[in-house]
Amino acid sequence: MAGSSGRRRWTAAEVPDLRGKTAVVTGANSGIGFETTRVLADRGATVIMACRNPVKAEAARTRVLAESPEADVHLLELDLNSLASARKAADALVTERPTIDIAINNAGVIMLPHGQTEDGFEQHFGVNHLAHFAFTGLILPAVLASSAGRIVTVGSNGHRMGRLDFDDLPFEQGYKPLRGYGRSKLANLMFAYELHRRLAAAGASAISLAAHPGGANTDAGGFGGDSMKRWSALMDHIPNPIVHSAHKGALPLLRAAVDPAAKGGDYYGPRGLLTMTGPPVVVKSNARSRDTDSARRLWEVSEDLTGVTFPL
Ligand SMILES: NC(=O)c1ccc[n+]([C@@H]2O[C@H](COP(=O)([O-])OP(=O)(O)OC[C@H]3O[C@@H](n4cnc5c(N)ncnc54)[C@H](OP(=O)(O)O)[C@@H]3O)[C@@H](O)[C@H]2O)c1
Q1: Ligand 1 center to residue 33 CA distance, Å?
Q2: Which of 28, 22, 40, 151 has its CA nearest to residue 96?
Q3: Looking at residue 231, what is its pLDDT?
Q4: What was the pLDDT predicted at 7?
């Protein structure tokens, strides 16, 4: 297997036999989450598809099973717009699956107009960050029960547009969709890195990493929606420096989840220009995302707002 900086192109063929492993993927019914689920399930992992819409989730599960009839895929209802739903889903999950080897925080809303979650949080911050923070904290005992648990949180190049203004989390001083999305993706990265530091300080065998797909042709990718999606498979055969398929967008998540050379605190993304397309490698995020003081503060604020305290 190629190391993190190796020249060999890492592909889904590198994903090892995962029989006996359990994975949970949020937002598993479409886009990058679906592609990640498809590959993990095909390699024999038991995959829990944590989705908000049971009809879409069942249709996605059917697609996985059509390709891999032996796959062991299950549905878990999780609406990250609601902390009560995150709590209920996490409780159900750890009751049924006391050991989780791979947890992928993938679901996300992207550049929506200003809006609030059920709990009154700005919706990008609430769905993409706070609810994943709560869900992760509540399933952490099951991840710690694995001999080598991994938590992969999905970021974005959009984190560079984000600022964490702790005095104005609701954006009362002015809102733009890119600022809302950017803040949530910055928070996703800061959470992933802070969780890594806390796990390491506790001497845990579990690690936390981050990954981003670059520009991927999905519903949320905003690269043409349904009319473009039918051309998704073709896209990998046409040179395009900024958009690749949902499958290629999923590779950084998969590499972070399974590459034995991956380390806690690593951030995987595409190797190409502006880290938009190309094979998955360790990439850099900006200095703000690595600011440990802000990350500690974000952690405390997130514990306060969600009422979830990590056992770390
Ligand atoms: N595509 C890109 O170019 C790109 C670039 C950078 C980062 N990303 C990140 O990649 C991740 C996946 O996005 P994608 O591109 O694959 O888009 P997608 O196809 O729209 O997938 C988003 C997933 O999140 C789910 N979701 C949204 N709100 C939710 C909620 N309240 N509760 C539970 N699930 C919810 C969606 O469920 P429904 O189907 O029910 O809506 C869907 O399964 C996101 O975190 C995004 O920020 C994507």
Answers
A1: 7
A2: 22
A3: 54
A4: 61
Residue 291 lies in a domain: yes
> Which residues lie across from 207 on neighbouring strands?
150
Residues 6+ apart with CB under 8 A from 282: 4, 5, 266, 267, 268
CATH no. for residue 164? 3.40.50.720
With a cut of 70, list the residues of the chain below it in pLDDT. 1-7, 220-238
In a domain, 4, yes or no: no
With a CB cutoff of 8 Å and minimum separation 6, the contacts of 8 are 2
- CA 129-134-139 angle, to 5 degrees, is 125
Protein residues with CB under 6 Å of any ligand 1 atom: 27, 29-33, 51-53, 56, 78-81, 106-110, 127, 154, 156, 212-213, 215-216, 218-221, 249
Are the C-beta atoms of residues 215 and 277 closer than 8 Å to each other?
yes
Mutate to test the pocket of ligand 1, among 24, 25, 51 (most ligand atoms within 8 A of CB): 51
According to the model, what pLDDT value does residue 227 have?
46
The total of structural domains in the chain comes to 1
Within a domain: 161: yes
| Inside any domain, residue 284 | yes
Q: Which tens digits make up the pLDDT trace of 223-247?
A: 444 444 555 555 656 677 888 999 9
Q: Judge whether 212 and 182 are in contact, CB under 8 Å.
A: no
Residue 282 structural domain: 21-306
Pairwise CA distance, residues 161 & 156, whole Å: 10
